[in-house]
């Protein structure tokens, strides 16, 4: 199916059982909650998905399960974050074989590549696949910035279509739009800047806290889309303490605790990650508990149009 790079695309967590195998029952429950809320795509195998700890067969299982659940209602995107270019090409081919509809690609993270090396890496992957691609631009966490000048060359590859914009500079949305118009779709990748980015013209939101709060997340997007800004702002203000849990090295543990609170996840993480403990666990639980106690009643937000 065609990937329309817009709307809310959850970067879903990977669910594990107490004995560290894939918890497909809970995974299916969460994906179903996302689809019922009205998300516009599903992204697998990112940081939130603990991709670096997943075996190849586990990634394949998750893609195939999600493709089956999505049933061509929304596209399924897989994250590519391999260190070797050959491995990234092979992972892209496997994603297509398993039925994924698109790719989100990170630059190599364990080596601070030059601009030329980064572009060659991206272009080699793009030239190897028919799948559409979203470049993940996150210099804050991953140390490599994909500049506008780099995008100008990368867009020579017809299947590079979108950017997950995580520079944390909202004005970059305007710079991208001024330079490339609609040729490069923009999805905000920072939960705490989502509304601001969409008001400045971003096409959507690759979201984290959506894993626990899918309806609230989609409501914000749809209300903005329909011009109901006051209603969107009210939900966003309630959401902000939770959204700040996404901009933390422990974002996986934080968001999984939130999933427990809403009944669509467990807090099991895969080592070397460990569940939160002590004062930090209590701090996060307090934020979640306060949000649950004041959780807003949502207006009807789903559009009558597709």
From TrEMBL:
SMART domains: DHDPS. One of its GO terms (molecular function) is N-acetylneuraminate lyase activity. Pyruvate binds at residue 206. Keywords: Lyase. The active site is at residues 136, 164. One of its GO terms (biological process) is N-acetylneuraminate catabolic process. It holds the Pfam family DHDPS. Belongs to the DapA family. This is Dihydrodipicolinate synthase family protein. It comes from Poritiphilus flavus.
């Amino acid at each position: 199916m065609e990937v329309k790079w817009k709307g809310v695309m959850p970067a879903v967590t990977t669910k594990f059982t107490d004995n560290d195998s894939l918890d497909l029952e809970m995974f299916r429950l969460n994906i179903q909650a996302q689809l019922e809320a009205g998300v516009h795509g599903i992204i697998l195998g990112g940081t939130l998905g603990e991709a670096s700890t997943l075996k190849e067969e586990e990634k394949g299982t998750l893609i195939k399960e999600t493709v089956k659940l999505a049933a061509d209602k929304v596209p399924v995107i897989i994250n590519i974050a391999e260190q070797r270019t050959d491995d990234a090409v092979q992972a892209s081919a496997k994603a297509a074989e398993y039925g994924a509809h698109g790719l989100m690609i990170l630059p190599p993270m364990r080596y601070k590549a030059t601009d030329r090396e980064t572009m060659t890496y991206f272009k080699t992957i793009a030239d190897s696949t028919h799948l559409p691609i979203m470049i993940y631009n996150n210099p804050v966490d991953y140390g490599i910035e994909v500049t506008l000048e780099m995008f100008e060359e990368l867009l020579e590859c017809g299947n590079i279509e979108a950017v997950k914009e995580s520079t944390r500079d909202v004005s970059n949305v305007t710079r991208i739009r001024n330079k490339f118009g609609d040729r490069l779709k923009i999805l905000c990748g920072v939960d705490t800047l989502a509304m601001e980015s969409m008001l400045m013209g971003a096409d959507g939101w690759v979201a984290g806290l959506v894993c626990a709060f899918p309806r609230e997340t989609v409501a914000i997007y749809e209300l903005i889309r329909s011009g109901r800004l006051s209603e969107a702002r009210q939900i966003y203000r309630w959401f902000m303490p939770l959204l700040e849990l996404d901009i933390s090295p422990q974002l996986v543990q934080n968001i999984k605790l939130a999933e427990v609170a809403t009944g669509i996840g467990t807090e099991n993480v895969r080592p070397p990650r460990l569940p939160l403990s002590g004062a930090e666990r209590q701090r996060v639980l307090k934020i979640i508990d306060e949000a649950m106690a004041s959780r807003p009643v949502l207006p009807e937000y789903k559009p009558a149009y597709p």
